[in-house]
Amino acid sequence: MDERAEWTLTLRQVFQDVQLQAVEASGYLRNPSGAAHQRTLVPAVRRFSALFSDEVRDGKRGVVEEAFALFLEETWLAVARVLVAPKVSDVVLLAVASFVGEFLRRKSSRSKEPKGKEELRAGLLKRLMEATKAEDRVVRLRACHMLQIVVNRQDYIEEELVTQLRDTMLRRLNDKLTSVRIQSIYGLKKLQGGPAEHEDEEETDEEPDKEEDAVTQELRKLMVSDPSKDVRKAALLNLTVSRKMYQDVLVRVRDASEDVRFAAFRMIGNAMPMEDIPINDRAHLLDQGLQDRAARVRRACEQMVLKKWFSECGSSPVLLLQALDIEQYSEIGSKVSRILLKHLSEQPRALLEKEGVVEFNALDMMSENSDAFNAESIFFWREQCYYYQKIDNDPDKAAAILPNVSDFSKMLVATCKAESDVLFIAQQLLEFGHLLDFQDEFGRRNLLDALQKLLRELGTDSQLIKGIMQLMAFVYSRSSEQEFIQVVAEIISDMYDPVEASNQEVSASQQEDPEIPSSQQEASTENEPSPLSFGPQLNKLSEEDREAAEVKFEELEKRLDTLEFDSEEYNKVQADMLALEALLQDPKVLSWLRCLEIVAQLLKLTSHNLSDPIVDGMSRYILPAIDSDVPALREAGLENLGLFCLLDKRLAERYLIVFWRALNNPEEETEVKHTCVQAILDMAFSFTNLQPHIFGAKQAEDVGDAEGKDDSAKESADQDAAKEGDKDSDNDGDKSGDKDGKEDNASDEDEDMEKVDEAEPVAGPEKLDLDTIFIGLGQLVTVDDLDLQSTIVEGFCRLFMMNRIDNITVLAILLETYFSPKLQKVQQLSEHGFQSRSLQLLSIFFPAFVMATTANCMLLEEAATHLIQKSMEKLEMENDSMLDLGACSKYVMHLLSHNEQEEEAAVQAVKARKKRAKKPERRRCAHHNRIGITVCLEILALEKVAAMPAIRQDVVTTRQKALLKMIAWVGVTVDEQRSAALFKYLLQEITSSCFSSQKGLLRSADAMLKRTSASYSEQSTEQSDDQQAAALAQDQTWAHGLVKEREDVLHEVLLKASAEHEKWLKKQEREKKAKRRRNARYLSSGSSDSSESESDEGSDNEPPAAAPVRRKLSSRRSKTAAVSRMHEKEGEFEAKIKQALQADDADEEDEDEYDEEDSESDEEDGEEEEASAAEEEEEEASASEGDE
């Protein structure tokens, strides 16, 4: 007994020493898995192992089984004391767990262990697993923590224990305590199924081990959906990353938590080689990481590039840019290049040489081998010059790698005239030109001449026009912008005027002919129609050829979408499309398009307005394009007109109707409509209080004209363009022109425009204001075209934040879009976990809009009220595409509670470090009261409508349920006493007069009334007086009047909804009856077949009998038997048909509105059955003849 007590005391002493050492040294927490920590545990583990060998393995004192049981019990008591102690430091728990795990550690399945140690390990782990089920949360947390440390210490665990540990830890993943879930995640790190091992077996094994997959699936689920950022981070760090799993990790770079995003970049950088990550995913990683709002996340992304990816590319900047596909992701390439340049400039040269960094000097490369220049080299060369000039401010380094202007001009011209595969290089060189030193006047003139020639040539790619114009504007900005405008105007005029000049020669020859009087010439010009008397005349194909070519082009385009990219068939179809496109394009159309491209860039780059006659004359090229039958010309013309209107408010008001009508033209191209939307929004951004001119009214002089119903806006545009064309033709002889003449023409044009505006129409002019336009744009917000949707949503958000719009309907449309079920599905289908751009914009817009001003709060309240009423007026409420009113109400009430405003004010006060910071003022608003009143009025109106005839109760109940879900989020406030009292009164009215047949809804309404009354009593401190009672009576009268108004509106809506619902129910009933008939028919045929098969099977089982003697019949008698069988079948068939028709007639009497549809369907069924009966008769007759 004394010996037993001695070694027991020794065991306890070992545990006490471990705990004491942990308290004295804090290295356990700083580095629990490092070498220093391991050394501190070595003496204790040796003592404990020796004690186990002496007392259990050798069995010197007593029976081995008793010694083992006692040793296990004493060890567990020492561990359990740590678990249940009221106050235990984390270092003590960590030290004891590490000590136990190190003692129980087994390196592999082949390593030898002392006898009984395996049983000891199993016993301790099972008791720890049981402890994780404790009701006390502290014990449960410590048990999970200790268990995960012990498990992670083991290099090998028996398969039976692995299964038990996995099941135990998986159950703990659903624990309500965040810390327990985190420790369970760490414990499952080594218990995953090893996806790397099964990755190669996926093709052969369709069903991998479910237990192994369960751990990975749970970790992936927690990483995505757990509300705690610490749990998501732990799941991310402990998930084994592979090619299969890394896509889930990739989504976490967009997590809401900074810690999770930081962990995601560290995880991907350490676990995934760059070559295993697709190029688009690399771009996504860098796009998210390098512009993250948190500095530590940006540094983690930069370290991933510098420490991992850069070294994997041989420390060569060019190779790294090649791996990032800078032609598609040039902005990301710029950010990566500047990170590399900053890193290289900060590191000593000796260290860079030691790391094997490849030094890049573009001029040396060009002098040695010009063919070695590629897109990545040019790109990094430009980034080098930009970094040294603009960021590092080192002119000496920049001068060392900059070329002279003359050499640059030759390189640029040679590149721009090359094939399209060097288009990216040409674009980079055009951007590079902004960094050159233009002190060399000769080189500057050469460069400008080269740029002008490139503009004049139609062979120059359209994507280069923007870069050429920007470089020209940059070079001319050092001297004179007016010179730049004149040069560009001359280029445009020379490209546009050749055909027009030939037209002018024809008209001049007619005027010079002495045989034709001038009066006859004028009469002939008036009588002869001329569809386009301005601009280049198009060489059109015949209508049939053009239509055939367009149809074939569309077919090829659809086929191209189904083919694999860059395959042989894909390239062949693409070549055919290019040939067709060249056939459809007219050279003069291309020339006109080039003019419009140059005009657009000129309007973007100039700072002059319409006071400059050259800029004012640009309308000569723009207005004719709007009336063209070529979609590309119309699109370019509308884009230019939108830019042109931004120069003057009067122009914007004059031509806004043109964009509006093109937008509402159902036959217009999608690209043209997108251009119109952008132009309308740009004008709304630029000018306040726009008042669009109305051209849609038919003038008195056009009463008898049948074509007066067309767009008169286009007619007026044509008139303006014709006048300007005459003006320009008069000035062709002298291009310097007479400015007075131009001003006279311009004034005449304005006078004619005013005359058109002031002419009295036969009918009143149509009403068009900005609200009408904005509502029309809001109705275009659909999921079918996400680009157009995001453009409109972004425009509305900007207009609301600029206080340019206060339309409630538009704000309600935005709110409905934010909660659109269809738009929510886009996030699930998109790559990288992206939401649609519209959702991202609206998630930022609504909180910022509400926090801006009190007036914005009122707008949101009115928009919510409008949305509630419109939702109740919809015919279908249970559709999948129906708005979730409960979620929408919850969000709106959260925004209008002003909690975020108070938090923001508190943060600003802390930042200001005021000694006596005042409590932030709370906005005293009663939005909840007023929205609650609106909901109550709708419920009361619905209850009155439900009592009317022809109204289905289920249609009403659906709406009442939706309204009760909304009112659940309404909180009463006494900041506005009258609205609070009225809201409480309306709730009492609902509970007393509504939901008489809906007990569940009545209980919900009672609960809301109790909650509202309690909150009202707590907040209300003043006693009610006669004045408040009188005010409440007035409010009650007002509320009953509104209920009456809504009752009339909802009655009409619910009548239609009830009728539609009744039709739907009858349709469902008819389908069920038809299904029952078909099933009965199949069952009867199946039973006859089964009886025949059973008889056949029975005959097969019986012993073979003697064949009966066949009775011989004459041909006449056999034919008579066949005919009699046919008559019997006909009788049975006619009886069945009569029964079916009688049932259908009974159904028709109950369904009067479906008489025509039922009769048609019955006739079709009868014809089908008669046809099948005739086929059966023919088959029987043929069979009987065969028997004969």
UniProtKB/TrEMBL annotation:
It holds the Pfam family Cnd3. GO terms for biological process: cell division; mitotic chromosome condensation. Residues 198-214, 746-760, 1091-1100, 1144-1188 have a biased composition (Acidic residues). Residues 502-530 have a biased composition (Polar residues). It comes from the Eukaryota. The keyword Secreted does not apply. Residues 539-573 form a coiled coil. Residues 706-745, 1125-1137 have a biased composition (Basic and acidic residues). Residues 594-944 form the Nuclear condensin complex subunit 3 C-terminal domain. InterPro entries: CND3 (IPR027165), Cnd3_C (IPR025977). Residues 1109-1119 have a biased composition (Basic residues). Residues 191-214, 502-538, 701-762, 1066-1188 are annotated as: Disordered. GO terms for cellular component: condensed chromosome; condensin complex. It is found in: Chromosome. Keywords: Cell cycle, Cell division, Chromosome, Coiled coil, DNA condensation, Mitosis. Its main location: nucleus. The keyword Repeat does not apply. This is Nuclear condensin complex subunit 3 C-terminal domain-containing protein.
